[in-house]
Amino acid sequence: MSRMAACFLPLLLVALIGQPGCMLMKLDRISKKLTGGEPETILQSDVGAPPEMESRHSTGIDHDGDTLVGGRFSYRGNIEETDAFAKEVSERYTSRGWTAWQTSVHPRNGNLIFRKDDRQAEVDYTVSAIEPAMSRAIVTVSRIAASVPAAQPAQGAVGRGPA
Questions:
Q1: Do the beta carbons of residue 59 and residue 71 sit within 8 Å?
Q2: Which of 120, 110, 61, 55 is nearest to 87 (CA)?
Q3: Rounded to whole angstroms, how far apart are CA atoms 122 and 42?
Q4: Three-state SS for 123?
Q5: Considering only CA atoms, which of 143, 144, 141, 124 is closest in space to residue 59?
Q6: CB 89 within 8 Å of CB 51
Q7: I want to staple 77 with a disulfide (CB 3.0 to 4.6 A). Which of 53, 102, 130, 146 is the partner?
Q8: 140 and 121 in contact (C-beta within 8 Å)?
Q9: Is-contact 121 67, C-beta < 8 A?
């Protein structure tokens, strides 16, 4: 399918189905996947971006050569099920060499911490009670302080409550 056809597909389907709103948001996600519109990483780094979410704001971006070592990145998008969202985020990180360090998943929010070398990435997310498509996620990337004692990583990528 051509890129232009993929862009018009959601509009065509909404016109045929006649149900805007949530249906349009789901069709937009399909269009992004067809056109490659959703980056899997932040700033072409090894830091995973929240799945099916749109970047809204970035601050404090810091690089050490080609490595992203700092920054706070906010996202808005659809989170319908926190366990599934946490699993997909974990897969994005572990496939890039990160270790799941701490996992806390609840029905309306979650907090995931990953570590790699001297860096930490924290993914904090909350499901919007009114509209799941307006849920938020904040990814904070930072250096691990040298004074922090070494501890063992969390067992398993996703779990209920603190790891």
A1: yes
A2: 110
A3: 13
A4: strand
A5: 141
A6: yes
A7: 53
A8: yes
A9: no
Name the residue among 127, 125, 118 with its Cα closest to residue 146: 118
| Residue found under tokens 């995973």 | 48
Query: Please, are residues 110 and 100 in contact by the beta-carbon 8 Å criterion?
Result: no
pTM, two decimals, is 0.70
Q: What is the pLDDT of residues 60-117, one digit of tens each?
A: 999 999 999 999 999 999 999 999 999 999 999 999 999 999 999 999 999 999 999 9
Instruction: Give the chain's end-to-end CA distance (angstroms, integer).
Output: 44
Write the pLDDT tens digit of every residue in 68-83.
Answer: 999 999 999 999 999 9
d(CA 133, CA 26): 9
User: Cα(29)–Cα(137) distance, rounded to whole angstroms?
Assistant: 17
161: Cα within 13 Å, side-chain hemisphere: 0
Report the side by side order of strands in the sheet with 53-64: 53-64, 67-77, 135-143, 119-126, 109-116, 99-105
Look at strands 119-126 and 67-77 and give their pairing: unpaired
Closest CA to 84 of 114, 123, 51: 51
Q: How far is CA 3 from the centre of its chain?
A: 24
Q: Count the neighbouring beta carbons within 10 Å of the beta carbon of residue 106.
A: 13
